[in-house]
Design goal:
With 433 residues, the chain is mostly helical. 49% of the residues lie in helices and 10% in strands. It has 17 helices and eleven strands. The strands form four sheets. The protein has a three-stranded antiparallel beta sheet. A three-stranded antiparallel beta sheet has the order 4-6-5. The longest helix has 45 residues. The C terminus is likely disordered.
Length: 433
Protein backbone atom coordinates (compact mmCIF):
# COMPACT_ATOMS: atom_id res chain seq x y z
CA UNK A 1 0.00 0.00 0.00
CA UNK A 2 2.82 2.35 0.91
CA UNK A 3 4.61 1.57 -2.36
CA UNK A 4 1.42 2.32 -4.31
CA UNK A 5 1.04 5.72 -2.59
CA UNK A 6 4.63 6.59 -3.30
CA UNK A 7 4.24 5.77 -7.01
CA UNK A 8 1.01 7.74 -7.17
CA UNK A 9 2.67 10.86 -5.76
CA UNK A 10 5.62 10.50 -8.16
CA UNK A 11 3.22 10.21 -11.08
CA UNK A 12 1.73 13.66 -10.32
CA UNK A 13 5.15 15.27 -10.10
CA UNK A 14 6.14 17.18 -13.20
CA UNK A 15 9.63 17.50 -14.50
CA UNK A 16 9.90 21.09 -13.28
CA UNK A 17 8.19 20.35 -9.97
CA UNK A 18 5.37 22.80 -10.56
CA UNK A 19 2.37 20.67 -9.49
CA UNK A 20 2.64 18.50 -6.38
CA UNK A 21 -0.70 17.49 -4.88
CA UNK A 22 -0.78 17.16 -1.09
CA UNK A 23 -0.99 13.72 0.41
CA UNK A 24 -4.44 14.38 1.94
CA UNK A 25 -6.00 14.65 -1.55
CA UNK A 26 -4.64 11.22 -2.40
CA UNK A 27 -5.88 9.68 0.84
CA UNK A 28 -9.31 11.29 0.45
CA UNK A 29 -10.35 8.86 -2.28
CA UNK A 30 -8.97 5.81 -0.45
CA UNK A 31 -10.11 6.43 3.14
CA UNK A 32 -13.72 7.32 3.83
CA UNK A 33 -13.68 10.30 6.27
CA UNK A 34 -16.87 10.75 8.32
CA UNK A 35 -17.76 14.42 8.98
CA UNK A 36 -17.86 15.35 12.68
CA UNK A 37 -21.31 15.91 14.15
CA UNK A 38 -22.06 19.19 15.84
CA UNK A 39 -21.92 19.07 19.62
CA UNK A 40 -25.00 19.63 21.72
CA UNK A 41 -23.08 21.24 24.61
CA UNK A 42 -22.91 24.99 25.15
CA UNK A 43 -19.84 26.33 23.29
CA UNK A 44 -16.95 27.56 25.40
CA UNK A 45 -16.40 30.66 23.28
CA UNK A 46 -19.34 32.67 21.99
CA UNK A 47 -19.45 35.92 20.09
CA UNK A 48 -20.25 38.74 22.47
CA UNK A 49 -23.34 40.70 21.42
CA UNK A 50 -23.81 44.20 22.77
CA UNK A 51 -27.03 45.34 24.41
CA UNK A 52 -27.27 49.11 23.96
CA UNK A 53 -29.77 49.48 26.80
CA UNK A 54 -27.24 48.33 29.40
CA UNK A 55 -24.36 50.15 27.68
CA UNK A 56 -26.25 53.46 27.76
CA UNK A 57 -26.96 52.82 31.43
CA UNK A 58 -23.22 52.52 32.04
CA UNK A 59 -22.45 55.70 30.08
CA UNK A 60 -24.51 57.63 32.62
CA UNK A 61 -22.93 55.61 35.41
CA UNK A 62 -19.49 56.76 34.23
CA UNK A 63 -20.47 60.38 34.79
CA UNK A 64 -22.11 59.74 38.16
CA UNK A 65 -19.01 57.88 39.34
CA UNK A 66 -16.87 60.96 38.67
CA UNK A 67 -19.45 63.19 40.32
CA UNK A 68 -19.39 61.03 43.44
CA UNK A 69 -15.61 61.51 43.66
CA UNK A 70 -16.07 65.28 43.36
CA UNK A 71 -18.81 65.25 45.98
CA UNK A 72 -16.64 63.40 48.48
CA UNK A 73 -13.81 65.85 47.75
CA UNK A 74 -16.00 68.91 48.34
CA UNK A 75 -17.64 67.48 51.48
CA UNK A 76 -14.22 66.73 52.97
CA UNK A 77 -13.16 70.39 52.74
CA UNK A 78 -13.73 73.07 55.34
CA UNK A 79 -17.15 74.71 54.97
CA UNK A 80 -17.73 72.24 52.09
CA UNK A 81 -16.33 74.72 49.55
CA UNK A 82 -13.24 74.77 47.33
CA UNK A 83 -11.62 77.82 45.69
CA UNK A 84 -11.61 77.50 41.93
CA UNK A 85 -7.90 78.37 41.90
CA UNK A 86 -7.13 75.18 43.89
CA UNK A 87 -9.55 72.96 42.00
CA UNK A 88 -7.02 71.55 39.52
CA UNK A 89 -4.55 70.74 42.30
CA UNK A 90 -7.09 68.92 44.47
CA UNK A 91 -8.71 67.07 41.54
CA UNK A 92 -5.41 65.74 40.19
CA UNK A 93 -5.51 62.56 42.35
CA UNK A 94 -8.96 61.84 40.87
CA UNK A 95 -7.46 61.49 37.39
CA UNK A 96 -8.27 64.95 36.00
CA UNK A 97 -5.78 66.92 33.95
CA UNK A 98 -5.15 70.66 34.09
CA UNK A 99 -8.24 72.82 33.45
CA UNK A 100 -10.32 69.65 33.11
CA UNK A 101 -11.96 69.70 36.55
CA UNK A 102 -13.52 73.14 36.12
CA UNK A 103 -14.87 72.30 32.67
CA UNK A 104 -16.35 69.08 34.08
CA UNK A 105 -18.13 70.92 36.88
CA UNK A 106 -19.60 73.47 34.49
CA UNK A 107 -21.31 70.63 32.58
CA UNK A 108 -23.47 69.77 35.60
CA UNK A 109 -24.86 73.01 37.07
CA UNK A 110 -27.63 71.12 38.89
CA UNK A 111 -24.97 69.31 40.94
CA UNK A 112 -22.22 71.92 41.36
CA UNK A 113 -22.51 75.65 41.87
CA UNK A 114 -19.80 78.27 41.28
CA UNK A 115 -20.27 81.56 43.11
CA UNK A 116 -18.32 84.65 44.09
CA UNK A 117 -17.36 85.08 47.70
CA UNK A 118 -19.00 88.27 49.04
CA UNK A 119 -15.91 89.38 51.00
CA UNK A 120 -12.88 87.84 49.31
CA UNK A 121 -14.24 88.44 45.79
CA UNK A 122 -12.87 85.16 44.46
CA UNK A 123 -14.70 82.23 42.87
CA UNK A 124 -15.66 79.22 44.98
CA UNK A 125 -17.41 75.97 44.07
CA UNK A 126 -19.85 74.03 46.22
CA UNK A 127 -22.65 71.51 45.89
CA UNK A 128 -25.99 72.77 44.63
CA UNK A 129 -29.12 72.58 46.73
CA UNK A 130 -30.53 69.71 44.67
CA UNK A 131 -27.35 67.73 45.18
CA UNK A 132 -27.55 68.21 48.96
CA UNK A 133 -31.14 67.01 48.92
CA UNK A 134 -30.16 63.93 46.90
CA UNK A 135 -27.31 63.09 49.31
CA UNK A 136 -29.63 63.42 52.31
CA UNK A 137 -32.27 61.29 50.63
CA UNK A 138 -29.74 58.57 49.85
CA UNK A 139 -28.39 58.65 53.41
CA UNK A 140 -31.86 58.25 54.88
CA UNK A 141 -32.68 55.40 52.49
CA UNK A 142 -29.36 53.72 53.28
CA UNK A 143 -29.86 53.67 57.04
CA UNK A 144 -33.57 52.82 56.72
CA UNK A 145 -32.75 49.55 54.97
CA UNK A 146 -30.03 48.37 57.38
CA UNK A 147 -32.17 45.37 58.52
CA UNK A 148 -32.29 44.27 54.87
CA UNK A 149 -28.54 44.80 54.58
CA UNK A 150 -28.03 42.55 57.62
CA UNK A 151 -30.04 39.81 55.89
CA UNK A 152 -28.04 40.22 52.68
CA UNK A 153 -24.75 39.95 54.57
CA UNK A 154 -25.97 36.81 56.35
CA UNK A 155 -26.89 35.18 53.03
CA UNK A 156 -23.54 36.26 51.58
CA UNK A 157 -21.67 34.52 54.41
CA UNK A 158 -23.83 31.40 54.12
CA UNK A 159 -22.82 31.04 50.47
CA UNK A 160 -19.12 30.90 51.39
CA UNK A 161 -17.37 27.58 51.94
CA UNK A 162 -16.45 28.01 55.60
CA UNK A 163 -18.88 30.77 56.63
CA UNK A 164 -16.32 33.58 56.55
CA UNK A 165 -15.28 36.35 54.18
CA UNK A 166 -12.49 38.89 54.19
CA UNK A 167 -13.56 42.23 55.63
CA UNK A 168 -11.67 44.12 52.93
CA UNK A 169 -13.55 42.33 50.13
CA UNK A 170 -16.90 43.21 51.67
CA UNK A 171 -15.77 46.81 52.25
CA UNK A 172 -14.84 47.21 48.57
CA UNK A 173 -18.33 46.03 47.51
CA UNK A 174 -20.27 47.77 50.32
CA UNK A 175 -22.02 50.20 47.96
CA UNK A 176 -23.36 47.37 45.79
CA UNK A 177 -24.72 45.45 48.78
CA UNK A 178 -26.28 48.55 50.39
CA UNK A 179 -23.93 48.67 53.39
CA UNK A 180 -23.03 52.04 54.97
CA UNK A 181 -19.45 53.23 55.17
CA UNK A 182 -19.32 52.44 58.87
CA UNK A 183 -20.86 48.96 58.44
CA UNK A 184 -18.12 47.46 60.63
CA UNK A 185 -19.72 49.21 63.62
CA UNK A 186 -23.31 49.81 62.51
CA UNK A 187 -23.87 46.28 61.15
CA UNK A 188 -21.25 43.75 62.24
CA UNK A 189 -20.60 44.85 65.83
CA UNK A 190 -24.22 45.90 66.36
CA UNK A 191 -25.50 42.40 65.60
CA UNK A 192 -23.18 40.03 67.51
CA UNK A 193 -25.80 37.27 67.32
CA UNK A 194 -25.07 36.97 63.58
CA UNK A 195 -21.52 38.21 62.93
CA UNK A 196 -18.10 38.16 64.51
CA UNK A 197 -14.84 39.84 63.50
CA UNK A 198 -11.83 37.55 63.45
CA UNK A 199 -8.31 38.95 63.26
CA UNK A 200 -5.96 36.52 61.52
CA UNK A 201 -2.51 37.33 62.84
CA UNK A 202 -0.64 35.21 60.32
CA UNK A 203 -2.20 37.02 57.34
CA UNK A 204 -2.85 40.41 58.99
CA UNK A 205 -6.38 40.38 57.63
CA UNK A 206 -9.76 40.65 59.30
CA UNK A 207 -12.55 38.23 58.51
CA UNK A 208 -16.30 38.38 58.99
CA UNK A 209 -17.47 35.08 60.43
CA UNK A 210 -20.97 33.66 60.62
CA UNK A 211 -21.85 32.96 64.27
CA UNK A 212 -25.00 30.81 64.00
CA UNK A 213 -24.34 27.09 64.16
CA UNK A 214 -27.23 26.19 61.84
CA UNK A 215 -28.36 28.06 58.77
CA UNK A 216 -31.77 29.69 58.82
CA UNK A 217 -33.98 27.66 56.42
CA UNK A 218 -35.87 30.80 55.34
CA UNK A 219 -32.61 32.40 54.14
CA UNK A 220 -31.35 29.39 52.19
CA UNK A 221 -34.05 29.77 49.53
CA UNK A 222 -32.56 31.28 46.37
CA UNK A 223 -34.27 34.04 44.40
CA UNK A 224 -34.42 31.82 41.30
CA UNK A 225 -36.31 29.17 43.28
CA UNK A 226 -38.94 31.72 44.30
CA UNK A 227 -39.21 32.83 40.68
CA UNK A 228 -39.67 29.24 39.48
CA UNK A 229 -42.45 28.70 42.00
CA UNK A 230 -44.15 31.90 40.87
CA UNK A 231 -43.99 30.88 37.21
CA UNK A 232 -45.29 27.42 38.07
CA UNK A 233 -48.30 28.85 39.92
CA UNK A 234 -49.09 31.72 37.53
CA UNK A 235 -48.27 30.29 34.11
CA UNK A 236 -48.82 26.62 34.89
CA UNK A 237 -45.58 25.55 33.24
CA UNK A 238 -44.36 21.97 33.27
CA UNK A 239 -42.74 21.26 36.63
CA UNK A 240 -40.09 19.01 35.09
CA UNK A 241 -39.02 21.66 32.57
CA UNK A 242 -38.66 24.51 35.07
CA UNK A 243 -37.35 22.52 38.02
CA UNK A 244 -33.70 23.50 37.40
CA UNK A 245 -34.13 26.16 34.71
CA UNK A 246 -33.05 29.80 34.62
CA UNK A 247 -34.79 32.68 32.88
CA UNK A 248 -32.97 33.21 29.59
CA UNK A 249 -33.38 36.47 27.62
CA UNK A 250 -30.85 36.74 24.82
CA UNK A 251 -29.71 40.20 23.70
CA UNK A 252 -31.04 41.64 20.43
CA UNK A 253 -29.10 40.33 17.44
CA UNK A 254 -27.91 37.16 19.17
CA UNK A 255 -27.96 34.32 16.63
CA UNK A 256 -29.55 31.19 18.07
CA UNK A 257 -28.99 28.11 15.97
CA UNK A 258 -30.73 24.76 16.10
CA UNK A 259 -27.94 22.95 17.92
CA UNK A 260 -27.50 25.80 20.37
CA UNK A 261 -31.20 25.62 21.28
CA UNK A 262 -30.81 21.92 21.97
CA UNK A 263 -27.72 22.57 24.10
CA UNK A 264 -29.52 25.23 26.16
CA UNK A 265 -32.56 22.96 26.59
CA UNK A 266 -30.34 20.14 27.88
CA UNK A 267 -28.43 22.50 30.16
CA UNK A 268 -31.66 23.84 31.66
CA UNK A 269 -32.62 20.32 32.77
CA UNK A 270 -29.27 19.55 34.44
CA UNK A 271 -29.71 19.33 38.25
CA UNK A 272 -27.32 21.23 40.51
CA UNK A 273 -26.55 21.85 44.15
CA UNK A 274 -27.84 25.00 45.85
CA UNK A 275 -25.31 27.81 46.52
CA UNK A 276 -26.18 27.51 50.24
CA UNK A 277 -25.50 23.76 50.30
CA UNK A 278 -22.21 22.35 51.59
CA UNK A 279 -20.58 20.32 48.80
CA UNK A 280 -17.43 19.35 50.68
CA UNK A 281 -18.77 15.81 51.24
CA UNK A 282 -19.47 15.07 47.58
CA UNK A 283 -17.19 13.34 45.09
CA UNK A 284 -16.58 15.97 42.42
CA UNK A 285 -14.39 13.92 40.08
CA UNK A 286 -17.12 12.58 37.81
CA UNK A 287 -18.37 14.38 34.68
CA UNK A 288 -21.88 14.61 36.12
CA UNK A 289 -20.55 16.28 39.28
CA UNK A 290 -18.55 18.78 37.20
CA UNK A 291 -21.70 19.69 35.24
CA UNK A 292 -23.56 20.22 38.48
CA UNK A 293 -20.76 22.38 39.87
CA UNK A 294 -20.70 24.45 36.68
CA UNK A 295 -24.41 25.12 36.95
CA UNK A 296 -24.02 25.76 40.67
CA UNK A 297 -21.54 28.52 39.79
CA UNK A 298 -24.21 30.12 37.57
CA UNK A 299 -26.68 29.90 40.46
CA UNK A 300 -24.12 31.42 42.85
CA UNK A 301 -23.45 34.44 40.62
CA UNK A 302 -27.21 34.75 40.02
CA UNK A 303 -27.84 34.84 43.77
CA UNK A 304 -24.90 37.21 44.32
CA UNK A 305 -26.41 39.69 41.85
CA UNK A 306 -29.82 39.35 43.51
CA UNK A 307 -28.26 40.37 46.83
CA UNK A 308 -27.07 43.69 45.37
CA UNK A 309 -29.18 46.83 45.50
CA UNK A 310 -29.16 47.53 41.75
CA UNK A 311 -28.78 43.90 40.56
CA UNK A 312 -25.35 44.67 39.10
CA UNK A 313 -21.75 44.42 40.26
CA UNK A 314 -18.34 44.68 38.63
CA UNK A 315 -16.61 41.53 37.48
CA UNK A 316 -13.51 42.44 39.49
CA UNK A 317 -15.53 42.45 42.72
CA UNK A 318 -17.09 39.10 41.93
CA UNK A 319 -13.53 37.78 41.54
CA UNK A 320 -12.85 38.68 45.18
CA UNK A 321 -15.33 35.98 46.23
CA UNK A 322 -14.08 33.39 43.73
CA UNK A 323 -12.09 31.25 46.16
CA UNK A 324 -14.67 31.45 48.94
CA UNK A 325 -17.59 30.43 46.68
CA UNK A 326 -15.96 27.92 44.30
CA UNK A 327 -16.32 30.09 41.21
CA UNK A 328 -14.35 29.32 38.00
CA UNK A 329 -11.06 31.04 37.27
CA UNK A 330 -11.90 32.62 33.90
CA UNK A 331 -15.05 34.42 35.02
CA UNK A 332 -15.47 36.54 31.91
CA UNK A 333 -15.37 33.57 29.52
CA UNK A 334 -17.64 31.65 31.85
CA UNK A 335 -20.26 34.41 31.94
CA UNK A 336 -20.11 34.88 28.17
CA UNK A 337 -21.33 31.29 27.82
CA UNK A 338 -24.57 32.40 29.53
CA UNK A 339 -25.37 35.68 27.79
CA UNK A 340 -29.08 35.00 28.20
CA UNK A 341 -28.78 35.13 32.00
CA UNK A 342 -26.06 37.77 32.46
CA UNK A 343 -24.76 40.73 30.49
CA UNK A 344 -21.21 42.09 30.70
CA UNK A 345 -20.80 45.75 29.83
CA UNK A 346 -17.36 47.22 29.17
CA UNK A 347 -18.65 50.79 29.14
CA UNK A 348 -18.24 53.19 32.03
CA UNK A 349 -14.48 53.16 32.53
CA UNK A 350 -12.93 53.10 29.03
CA UNK A 351 -13.05 49.30 28.87
CA UNK A 352 -10.91 48.84 32.00
CA UNK A 353 -13.79 47.63 34.14
CA UNK A 354 -16.54 45.11 33.41
CA UNK A 355 -20.00 45.42 34.94
CA UNK A 356 -22.21 42.33 35.19
CA UNK A 357 -25.98 42.83 34.99
CA UNK A 358 -28.74 40.36 35.79
CA UNK A 359 -30.79 40.47 32.63
CA UNK A 360 -34.10 39.34 34.12
CA UNK A 361 -34.00 42.11 36.75
CA UNK A 362 -34.11 44.93 34.15
CA UNK A 363 -36.74 45.99 31.67
CA UNK A 364 -36.24 48.97 29.37
CA UNK A 365 -33.29 50.22 31.37
CA UNK A 366 -35.07 50.20 34.74
CA UNK A 367 -35.26 47.75 37.62
CA UNK A 368 -38.35 45.55 37.62
CA UNK A 369 -38.51 45.63 41.44
CA UNK A 370 -36.94 48.94 42.54
CA UNK A 371 -36.26 50.08 46.10
CA UNK A 372 -35.83 53.40 47.90
CA UNK A 373 -32.05 53.31 47.74
CA UNK A 374 -32.18 52.67 43.99
CA UNK A 375 -34.55 55.63 43.53
CA UNK A 376 -32.25 57.89 45.57
CA UNK A 377 -29.24 56.96 43.44
CA UNK A 378 -31.17 57.37 40.20
CA UNK A 379 -32.04 60.89 41.33
CA UNK A 380 -28.38 61.79 40.88
CA UNK A 381 -28.51 60.39 37.35
CA UNK A 382 -31.52 62.60 36.66
CA UNK A 383 -29.54 65.65 37.81
CA UNK A 384 -26.74 64.62 35.46
CA UNK A 385 -29.11 64.38 32.50
CA UNK A 386 -30.60 67.83 33.11
CA UNK A 387 -29.14 70.38 30.71
CA UNK A 388 -27.47 73.66 31.58
CA UNK A 389 -30.31 75.54 29.89
CA UNK A 390 -32.77 74.32 32.51
CA UNK A 391 -30.30 75.31 35.20
CA UNK A 392 -30.29 78.89 33.89
CA UNK A 393 -34.08 78.87 33.88
CA UNK A 394 -34.11 77.61 37.46
CA UNK A 395 -31.78 80.41 38.53
CA UNK A 396 -33.94 82.99 36.79
CA UNK A 397 -37.03 81.59 38.52
CA UNK A 398 -35.28 81.73 41.88
CA UNK A 399 -34.20 85.30 41.29
CA UNK A 400 -37.72 86.20 40.15
CA UNK A 401 -39.21 84.66 43.28
CA UNK A 402 -36.73 86.52 45.46
CA UNK A 403 -37.48 89.84 43.72
CA UNK A 404 -41.21 89.24 44.07
CA UNK A 405 -40.82 88.41 47.76
CA UNK A 406 -38.73 91.55 48.26
CA UNK A 407 -41.36 93.66 46.47
CA UNK A 408 -44.08 92.16 48.63
CA UNK A 409 -42.09 92.86 51.78
CA UNK A 410 -41.55 96.47 50.70
CA UNK A 411 -45.26 96.91 50.00
CA UNK A 412 -46.12 95.47 53.37
CA UNK A 413 -43.68 97.80 55.10
CA UNK A 414 -45.15 100.80 53.26
CA UNK A 415 -48.68 99.73 54.19
CA UNK A 416 -47.69 99.30 57.81
CA UNK A 417 -45.99 102.68 57.87
CA UNK A 418 -49.03 104.34 56.26
CA UNK A 419 -51.43 102.63 58.65
CA UNK A 420 -49.37 103.61 61.67
CA UNK A 421 -49.19 107.17 60.44
CA UNK A 422 -52.97 107.37 60.00
CA UNK A 423 -53.58 105.92 63.43
CA UNK A 424 -51.22 108.42 65.03
CA UNK A 425 -52.80 111.27 63.12
CA UNK A 426 -56.24 110.17 64.15
CA UNK A 427 -55.12 109.86 67.72
CA UNK A 428 -53.71 113.35 67.69
CA UNK A 429 -57.03 114.68 66.39
CA UNK A 430 -58.90 112.97 69.17
CA UNK A 431 -56.52 114.25 71.78
CA UNK A 432 -56.62 117.73 70.41
CA UNK A 433 -60.42 117.61 70.33
Amino acid sequence: MIIFLAKATNFFKSKRGIFTPPLKFVLYGLVSIRPMSKSTSIPKKLQRVRDHGFDNYMEIEKKTRKILKFQSLILSQRNETIPVSRLDFLARPLGFKQDEAGAFMLKFPHVFEIYEHPVQRILYCRLARKAHLQIERERQALYAQIPGAVTRLRKLLMMSNNGRLRLEHVRIARREFGLPDDFEHSVILKYPQYFRLVDAKETRNKYIEYVESEKDPSLTVCAIEKLREREYREKGADAEDIRFSFIVNFPPGFKIGKYYRIAVWKWQRVPYWSPYEDVSGYDLRSIEAQKRMEKRAVATIHELLNLTVEKKITLERIAHFRMAMNLPKKLKDFLLQHQGVFYISTRGNYGKMHTVFLREAYRRGELVEPNDLYFARRKLAELVLLSSRTAKVDKELVNFERERENDEMRCRRRDCVDDDGCQDFGGEKKNSA
